[in-house]
Fold this sequence. Notes:
Elements: H1 2-19, E1 92-96, E2 100-102, H2 104-117, E3 123-127, E4 134-137, E5 152-159, E6 164-170, H3 174-185, E7 192-196, H4 197-213, H5 222-228, H6 239-244
Amino acid sequence: MFSSILTKIATPLFAQRASFSYKTFSERYYEPHLVAQNNLSEVEYPDNYRRLHPVQKQVTPPPGSKLYKYATRSHDLHGPEEIHNKLVFKQFGIQATYGGELKFGHFEMLRLTINRRMEEKRMFAQWRVPQPWKGKTKRSLGKRMGGGKPDIKFFVTPVREGRIIVELGGNLTWKEAYRLLHDISMKLPFPARFVSQELLDCEDEISLYIQQHNVNPFADKVQHVMLKNYAGSQEYLSPWHFEWKSPHFKIP
């Protein structure tokens, strides 16, 4: 009898819990904020092609020359990106949060997914990274060492931290851009994130506020502290940190 009473009490609770639909974090925003940013007449569209164009799988050498076999050149991945770290069209994009390399398959994944999901009448996408240009050599399985540098196996595009990989713009909402780009950014070979112009502006304001209100007397003298080896700080630094003038970046 007691068990039957518990069943009658608990049944509506479990039914209510089962009927509750969980929402992702991106869907909890207030709906009036999710309006289109611009009208069709106000958006600055590219002149030629609105979709992502295909890239070449390998570099075509000039006539009478061979493909150059690069060294490892790990400095292509180290440190922050100082040039292509802002959104040109001031809307949405994918930004790398760590250094890495993009292969031809990653370019195709980005191109096919974005072109299939976007509406060309009111959206556009643009590459912000060059096509694969750095040749990577690799020996075949079971081959002996020696015999010189092996042949080029594939090509990659090195990416540094903070680099904008692709941009998305047009007459679209934040939710549409998030659903289109977020899951793609999680499939890249290095950590990346979905960014908007509002997010980048907010991060700049926060960093400026911290810089102005920081009570640490050495906050503005980071390079001086590194060079003078205060508190043995050089034990935890590398020559790359002195080149970047900041200890806040990790080495891939």
